[in-house]
Design goal:
seven-stranded antiparallel sheet
Length: about 550
C-alpha cells in the first residue's frame, strides 16, 4: 500500500443519489415562488433545469474532490492529501492510530462503499482527532482496518474469534428504549425538527393562523385538549424512541478479537468501530434516572483517542451497548474491564473464599447532610426570590402563586438528594479504581489504575466544615478526570495512596499517636487506609504539593 491511492470512483453515484436531498427543497421553493400565470411547460422547464444544475454542481464538486484527494499507507505512516482550493497533507504515525470506525449509510451500502474514520488522538478536541477516507470499497476498508490495528496483541495468522460475542442484540431490550426524558418531549422535538424544512418551503404556521386556532381550541376546551395533547406528545416520543433504538442498534454485536474490541450496529446505516484494548483505560456504567428505575443501564468505554460525537449521531462514539438490563450491562462491563471489579454487578457476585467480591464502600453521612442542606436552602431561596418578584411587580393570579412550585417540588428534590447520597461509593479492585456518583445521571466508573497520571484533592468551605474532600483521578482517556465525591479525608487520601502508591504517597503524612501497632490488619481498624505495601494511612494529610514538571519515582512521563 505504499503507492498513492485514490478514493473509490463510485462516490459519484452516491453523490448523485444523495443530491436529491438538495433537489427536493429547491423544487418545492420554485413551485411556490414561480408566477402562477406562467405556462406549465415554462414552469416545468425552469424546475427541471434547476434540478439538473443542482445535481451537476454536486457531481462537479465531488469529481474535483476525488481528483485532489489521495492516500497511502507505508510501514510507518498513514498519509492523506486533500483540498480543492486549500491543499492539506496529513501524516499520522501508525502507532498513533487509536480506533477505526467504518460507516455506511443505505446508499453507500448498496454501492459497496464505506466511510473510514481513523481516530488518531492528535488533539483533545476538534476535527483533527479523526482522519477520514470517504469513501473506500467495503473490502478495501476492512483490509485497511485489519492492517492498521494489527500488532496490538494479534499475530499475523490469528483469525478473529466470533463464536461467543460479549453482547448481542436482544429485541426484548426494546422495552427500555422509551425510558428517557426525550420521550416526554417527543411532539416538541418533532415540531422543532420539522420547523426548518417547513420554513425552507415557505410554510409559517404562525402566519397561517394554525397556531392561533390551536390556542383558541386549547383555551376553550382545556380539560379535553390538554390531556389529548399530552397523550399525543408522549405517543410521538414513544414512537420516536423505539424507531431510534431499532435503526441505531439493529444488528448490534460486541465481540473481542485478538487485542481489540469490535462493535457493529445499525439497521439502515451500518457502523463498525474497532478499538485497541491497549488504548482502553476503563469502563463506565451509565444509569440515567428513568432507565435505572426501569432496571436498565448502558456501558461506555473509557479509552484514549476516540473521536467526538458528530451532529448526526444519536449516541456517543464510546458507547458500547444500547439500553439493556442492569445485570447484563454489569457483566459486559466486567468482561470489557478484563477483571473482577466491585460495583459493576448489581449485587456482589460470589467468589472464592480467599478472594471475596466486595461491593462499594459507602460515603459518610455528612455527604447526605450536605445534599439535604443544599436542597432545602436552594428551595427556600427560589421560593423567596419568586415571591418577592411576584409582590414587587404585582403579577396576575395564577403567576402570583408561582413561588409555591419550588415548595411543591421539595419532596421530589429531597428524594433525589437522599438517592444521590446513597449512591456514592468507591472501591479498589484488582486493577481498577471504582467510583460511583449521581442520581439523575448515575455513573459507575472503573478506571484502570495504570492509566492514572495525577491526582487533584479539593475541598470547598462547606466540605471542610463537614470533614469531606473530593479526590479526582486524572487520566488521558475519556473525560480526562474522574471524581470520588464527598469522601471522608481519611478515606479519600487513603484511596489515592493505595490506588497509585508512588504518585500521592510521598506527599502524605500520618500522625504518630493513634497509629495501630505493627501487624494490625487494616480491616480491624475502622477508617484506616493502607498503601500497597501495607503501610497505614490513618488521619492522612497532604504535606506539600508535587511539582507537576517532575514525574513520580518509578513512573514514566506520560
Amino acid at each position: 500500500m505504499t503507492a498513492w491511492r485514490s478514493l473509490h470512483p463510485r462516490s459519484l453515484a452516491a453523490s448523485a443519489v444523495m443530491s436529491t436531498t438538495i433537489v427536493v427543497p429547491v423544487v418545492a421553493v420554485l413551485i411556490r415562488a414561480l408566477p402562477g400565470d406562467w405556462p406549465v411547460a415554462a414552469r416545468t422547464g425552469v424546475i427541471a433545469g434547476a434540478a439538473v444544475l443542482v445535481v451537476a454542481g454536486v457531481l462537479v464538486f465531488d469529481l474535483a474532490r476525488l481528483r485532489t484527494t489521495a492516500w497511502r499507507l507505508t510501514d510507518e505512516r498513514l498519509e492523506l492529501r486533500s483540498g480543492i482550493a486549500f491543499r492539506t497533507h496529513r501524516s499520522v504515525p501508525r502507532d498513533r492510530v487509536r480506533s477505526v470506525d467504518l460507516t455506511a449509510d443505505p446508499v453507500r451500502r448498496l454501492l459497496g462503499l464505506a466511510v473510514v474514520k481513523i481516530g488518531t488522538g492528535e488533539h483533545a478536541s476538534g476535527e483533527r482527532t479523526t482522519l477520514t477516507l470517504d469513501p473506500l470499497s467495503r473490502r478495501e476498508a476492512e483490509e485497511l482496518r485489519g492492517v492498521l490495528l494489527r500488532g496490538s496483541g494479534e499475530e499475523p495468522g490469528d483469525a478473529p474469534s466470533r463464536d461467543v460475542p460479549l453482547a448481542e442484540l436482544d429485541w426484548s431490550w426494546l422495552r427500555l428504549a422509551p425510558l428517557t426524558v426525550w420521550t416526554a418531549a417527543g411532539g416538541v422535538l418533532i415540531m422543532g425538527i420539522a420547523y426548518k424544512p417547513l420554513d425552507a418551503l415557505g410554510v409559517d404556521l404562525a402566519e397561517s393562523g394554525a397556531a392561533a386556532e390551536l390556542w383558541d381550541w386549547v383555551t376553550t376546551r382545556p380539560w379535553f385538549a390538554v390531556p389529548l395533547l399530552l397523550a399525543v406528545n408522549v405517543l410521538a416520543g414513544l414512537a420516536g424512541a423505539v424507531a431510534t433504538f431499532a435503526t441505531a442498534w439493529g444488528r448490534y454485536r460486541l465481540e473481542r478479537e485478538p487485542g481489540r474490541l469490535r462493535l457493529s450496529r445499525g439497521l439502515l446505516t451500518a457502523r463498525s468501530l474497532t478499538l485497541e484494548e491497549r488504548r482502553l483505560r476503563g469502563v463506565e456504567l451509565t444509569e440515567p434516572l428513568l432507565l435505572r428505575l426501569g432496571g436498565g443501564a448502558r456501558v461506555k468505554a473509557v479509552a484514549t483517542g476516540l473521536r467526538k460525537k458528530e451532529e448526526n449521531e444519536a449516541d456517543d462514539v464510546a458507547m458500547l451497548t444500547p439500553p439493556m438490563p442492569r445485570e447484563a450491562a454489569g457483566r459486559v462491563a466486567e468482561q470489557v474491564a478484563g477483571a473482577a471489579t466491585p460495583g459493576l454487578l448489581s449485587s456482589p457476585a460470589p467468589g472464592p473464599p480467599s478472594h471475596p467480591r466486595p461491593g462499594l464502600r459507602p460515603h459518610p453521612r455528612a455527604a447526605m447532610t450536605r445534599r439535604l442542606r443544599a436542597t432545602v436552602l436552594s428551595t427556600a431561596f427560589l421560593a423567596a426570590v419568586t415571591a418577592a418578584a411576584a409582590w414587587s411587580w404585582s403579577w396576575p393570579s395564577p403567576w402570583a402563586w408561582s413561588w409555591t412550585l419550588p415548595v411543591l417540588a421539595l419532596p421530589f428534590t429531597l428524594w433525589l438528594a437522599v438517592d444521590a447520597a446513597r449512591g456514592l461509593g468507591h472501591a479498589l479492585g484488582e486493577r481498577h479504581l471504582v467510583t460511583r456518583a449521581g442520581s439523575v445521571a448515575r455513573r459507575t466508573v472503573a478506571l484502570d489504575r495504570g492509566g492514572i497520571v495525577g491526582w487533584t484533592v479539593s475541598e470547598s468551605y462547606f466540605q471542610r466544615r463537614l470533614g469531606l474532600i473530593t479526590v479526582s483521578a486524572t487520566t488521558a482517556a475519556g473525560d480526562g478526570h474522574y471524581d470520588v465525591l464527598d469522601a471522608s479525608t481519611e478515606d479519600g487520601l487513603g484511596l489515592a495512596a493505595r490506588a497509585v502508591p508512588d504518585l500521592l504517597g510521598p506527599f502524605l503524612r500520618t500522625p504518630g499517636p493513634g497509629t495501630p501497632a505493627p501487624g494490625t490488619p487494616a480491616s480491624a481498624t475502622p477508617g484506616l487506609a493502607t498503601t500497597e505495601a501495607g503501610t497505614p494511612v490513618s488521619g492522612a494529610r497532604l504535606t506539600r504539593l508535587p511539582d507537576p514538571r517532575t514525574p513520580p519515582a518509578g513512573r514514566p512521563v506520560p
